[in-house]
Amino acid sequence: MKGKAIVLTNGYLDTHKAKTAHGLIRGTERYEIIGIIDHKNAGKDAGEVLDGKKRNIPIYASIESCNAESTQKAEFLIIGIATKGGVLPEDMVPFIKSAIKAGMSVVSGLHEFLSENTTITELAEVYNVELIDVRKPKHNKELHFWSGKIAEVACPKIPVIGTDCNMGKRTTSRFINEAAMAVGLNAHMIYTGQTGWLQGGKYGFIFDSTLNDFISGEIEHAILECYKNEKPDVMFIEGQSSLQNPSGPCGSEFLISADADGVILQHAPARKYFHGSEGYKRTMPTLEQEIALIEMYGVKTIAVTINYQDMTLEEARAYQQEKEAALGIPVILPLEDGVGRLAETIGSLVTNFKHPYK
After folding, report:
1. Is residue 358 assigned to a domain?
2. How many domains does the chain have?
3. Quick check: pTM over 0.90?
């Protein structure tokens, strides 16, 4: 699929809630993004709003202004935000209706399904457009139990996990996969969230719409399918939430069920409390504590990537240098410097990889 799409953020583009839009602005092989709908930033370039890099993706105030001003016609409207609980904001419904009346199919990664909203489904039927709920759970018969066949995979599998949620693990995974490909490695990324699918991920599943009994099996199945079809040199697995976040503790599946051969750990040094659990007042682990916990699972952390939210660049550089010297592994600022420096680390891991079961 490479349909032309616009992304609805409706005032949230410059906030963490628009992380789905942020991923699509940075790149997608599934859609061609031709505009963003966000009245707060109308008239600007979406890339410049996101990270100061012009990407020639214009921002419009409304569906109507997009249709009037754009020289291209969108086939899809994508809901570009991720809300707490996956609830569809009521103020987005008029935009969805306008898009449907303009002949656009609507794609949503929220937990509140468009296909269960009678007003929206009736309108979609009248205008003969699709409602695509990316997070809709698969039927049990389509899911897989963990089998142990992961032992057949004879290449490194590297999860990119974090000390918390909402800190850019998917973006970093994509960057690292691209960097590995740039140095000639046959690298593939396993997506585990709705944005990964929206960006065109070929192998993966949507973690938080999968019944718990099947999560380990779905991870294994995605890896096995990728290995069978692509014969990769290395695979990177997009992490979700974190090992210790009380509102969504997960990640051990990526270490154990995916039989990880190393971890790249994303950390936000300035965060004191877990995202979404600030009132709970459970403090975040230190970087060293998280690395020690990962090692208890039998997996080494091979690199650290830094999200320097709420830090100055100078503070982030000082932290980077301090931790790289103390840990003896690469510590990277992905958005500032890219991840090209990790290509050598990954290449060495691939070259020296020994299948543990043979």
Report:
1. no
2. 2
3. yes
